[in-house]
């Protein structure tokens, strides 16, 4: 009997096809992987050693912030020495991480150390971190309110988009009447309707939900329609021959086949929702991160304003990472086929 052969993964096949590295290339890869740690150390030294200009002062918060990251980077580097997969990821990300820490270094030098970028418009990183810590309770409450508004509008837009996209994609008659209106509304950013909606809505929250849902609705509708239109009509004909009802055609053929396009629409819709959220909070809603930014700007508290902006970036990145992870999990069959 022949020994059962183990099936090689895609990564293992690529590893076999890759030409062997020279010693110089191996050493260069190790040095590149170590660069983020070295750049982080360099940023710490710049903050602690280079004297501040004028009356500019700093605390130990920024140094601790960088120090924790330096320890994490060093641990990741050490662990990557025993894991080829982790080492490959670190090798790919290392130049970008190094660039980020050099940006930190450069910004701190231009603000705290030299004053080329002056207060109050350009607070140094240490001020932003301290503002985030001192006002953390209020910021967390704003994050909570923003997330409630974001996901309420997003869920409403996704639900409406799936219904509209499925019906328009499946029925030519409905598509005939709805498609012209979608082309008209799709060319107009959802935030354009904000002044009208805020006047007509019974509450600022409901008006903001509608603005967010409108942008999501269009993205999901178009993606769902496109996915259904690209399905081979032979599948529908074969199912009809076997006695499938319209409900079965929609839920067993149309929607499952359009899932890859639907997830593209979900991702695009989240981007539209995030933009609409900030605009709605800045112009209408009296809570949330967008409102917090406008409020702090009116009092010239630019450190707190930048703290909220950083928090917005982190929250939105986290939301998109989760959405992409769900998409990859659901569409894992697509990667296996490709």
Automatic annotation (TrEMBL):
PANTHER family per UniProt: ABC TRANSPORTER PERMEASE PROTEIN MJ0413-RELATED (PTHR30151:SF0), ALKANE SULFONATE ABC TRANSPORTER-RELATED, MEMBRANE SUBUNIT (PTHR30151)
Residue stretches making up the ABC transmembrane type-1 domain: 143-327
Protein name per UniProt: ABC transporter permease
Membrane topology summary: Multi-pass membrane protein
Principal location class: membrane
TM ranges: 27-50, 62-79, 99-122, 148-169, 181-201, 207-228, 273-293, 305-326
A Pfam family: BPD_transp_1
Keywords annotated in UniProt: Cell membrane, Membrane, Transmembrane, Transmembrane helix, Transport
């Amino acid at each position: 009997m022949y020994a059962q052969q183990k099936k090689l993964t895609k990564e293992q096949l690529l590893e076999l096809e890759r030409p062997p590295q020279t010693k110089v290339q191996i050493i260069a890869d190790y040095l590149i992987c170590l660069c983020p740690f070295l750049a982080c150390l360099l940023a710490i030294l710049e903050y602690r050693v280079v004297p501040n200009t004028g009356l500019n002062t700093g605390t130990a918060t920024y140094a601790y912030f960088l120090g924790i990251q330096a320890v994490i980077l060093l641990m990741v580097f050490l662990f990557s020495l025993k894991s080829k997969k982790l080492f490959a990821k670190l090798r790919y990300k290392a130049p970008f991480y190094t660039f980020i820490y050099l940006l930190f270094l450069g910004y701190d030098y231009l603000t705290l150390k030299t004053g080329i970028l002056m207060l109050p418009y350009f607070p140094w990183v240490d001020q932003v971190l301290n503002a985030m810590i001192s006002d953390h309770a209020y910021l967390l409450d704003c994050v909570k309110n923003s997330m409630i508004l974001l996901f309420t509008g997003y869920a409403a837009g996704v639900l409406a988009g799936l219904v509209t996209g499925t019906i328009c994609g499946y029925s030519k008659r409905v598509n005939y009447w709805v498609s012209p209106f979608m082309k008209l509304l799709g060319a107009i950013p959802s935030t354009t309707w904000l002044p009208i909606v805020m006047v007509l809505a019974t509450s600022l929250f409901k008006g903001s939900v509608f603005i967010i849902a409108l942008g999501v609705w269009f993205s999901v509708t178009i993606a769902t329609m496109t996915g259904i239109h690209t399905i081979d009509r032979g599948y529908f004909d074969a199912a009809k021959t076997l006695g499938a009802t319209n409900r079965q055609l929609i839920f067993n053929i149309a929607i499952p086949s359009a899932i890859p396009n639907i997830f593209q629409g979900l991702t695009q819709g989240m981007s539209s929702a995030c933009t609409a959220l900030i605009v709605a909070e800045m112009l209408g809603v009296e809570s949330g991160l967008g409102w917090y930014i406008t409020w702090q700007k009116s009092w010239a508290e630019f450190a707190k304003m930048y703290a909220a902006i950083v928090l917005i970036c982190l929250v939105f990145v986290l939301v998109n990472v989760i959405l992409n992870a769900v998409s990859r999990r659901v569409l894992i069959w697509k990667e296996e086929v490709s």
